[in-house]
Amino acid sequence: MTIRKLFEPNSVAVVGASRDPEKLGHIVVKNLKEADFEGKIYPVNPETDEILDLKCYPSLKEAPKKTQLAVIVLPAQKVPSILKQCDENNVKNAIIVSGGFSEYDEEGEELEEEVLEIAKEMNIRILGPNCQGINNTSNGLCATWPLITKEGPLSIVTQSGTIAAALSNWAEEENIGVAKTAILGNKADIDEADLIDYLADDEETGVIGIYLDGVEKGRKFLEAARKAAEEKPVVVLKGGRSERGSKAVKSHTQSYAGKYEIFRSACRQEGLILVESVTEFYNVCKGIAALPQPEDSNTVIVTSSGGSGILAIDAAENLDVDLIDLSDRAVEKLDEVLPRECILSNPLDLTGSATAGMFDDSIKILARYKDINNLVVIVGDPIPGIADVIKERFDRLTIIPVMLGMGKEGLKEKLIDAGIPVFSDPALAMKVADAL
């Protein structure tokens, strides 16, 4: 059964809505309203007539019929009865934010099984339980927290609400934006493969980022991810890679972590992009979302910091990045315009006396050579005019900007405002080049 209306409903009932600003039942209603959700919002609470100037209904049964999505923010024990009300209202999609299920204890596990049995019997699809909801920025469906409204090409599927919130916040702050966000929780019903299938066909999604504690249905996941990767990049961060980490997975979302070596090998075979940390996860997704894809992996580093250039080389050692030698002709042309102290190789070290003009001359010359596909441009100190140079040359070839020690000059912000991603670590830039 399709889960399209999970992301594209014409009406949402928040069951457990609250007038208390500190409660999740209030926050979800508030975020839906402030995100300008295009459909109807129906708060459900038997103890009040209105919440945030919206009419409140005493029960889901008494809310307008054929409500398309229910967001349940109530104690776990009340969820089975709410699902039965969903059936009476013909609600076919539910997000169960409530915790206290299989991640908690054996009694919670039994309750989760009961909830799933009711949902299957009544043909209701469930996201969760123990999840942080979803966001679709294109229609204002922010049935989660924090409030994120910046639209963009990045879609996130994760078992961790905090990781989803972090990536969404960073993407909004850096002018990248998100298309869809879904937090899986315990995955009693809807799992990562279901969501990947949906996102693979979603026109607003340019890159799919996935964080998983564990994968119970490995073959289903790999098949969905492989099909999606044929259409758009799929970036994967896996938790529980260590022995102790895999034990912690079970108490988080009741998942089975499995052997990471097997998972990694299978993902690489299917063309997925694997990352090793939250920072790497975000930066790779950001780079893929906002940078043009190069025709090949031939890369040249242009830097004003010799040390940073060395770190970039070290990072490229185990990656599919070809740090090519500059041609004799390119060296001749660079020698004509650059000062004697510059080191005319790869990295092209403009030294600490580099100016925006030197960067501009270098990029213009290197852009002439078809065998150069990527330029990693490392700016070690604030250089007046450097943001304008990168903006001017950005469309000539794939430029991956790295800015260190920018102080308060606002150079990084100029690029971000122009929709150009900026990286703060040479190693991350090389990982992005590899992913591209």
From TrEMBL:
Alphabetized InterPro entries for the sequence: Acyl-CoA_Synth/Transferase (IPR051538), CoA-bd (IPR003781), NAD(P)-bd_dom_sf (IPR036291), Succ_CoA_lig_flav_dom (IPR032875), Succinyl-CoA_synth-like (IPR016102)
Catalytic activity reported: acetate + ATP + CoA = acetyl-CoA + ADP + phosphate
Segment forming the signal sequence: none
Pfam families: CoA_binding_2, Succ_CoA_lig
UniProt keyword list: ATP-binding, Ligase, Nucleotide-binding
The EC number(s) this enzyme carries: 6.2.1.13
Alphabetical list of SUPFAM superfamilies matching this protein: NAD(P)-binding Rossmann-fold domains (SSF51735), Succinyl-CoA synthetase domains (SSF52210)
Entry annotated with the keyword ATP-binding: yes
Keyword Cell inner membrane belongs to the record: no
Boundaries of every CoA-binding domain copy: 6-101
GO molecular function terms listed in the Swiss-Prot or TrEMBL record: acetate-CoA ligase (ADP-forming) activity; ATP binding
Name recorded for this polypeptide: acetate--CoA ligase (ADP-forming)
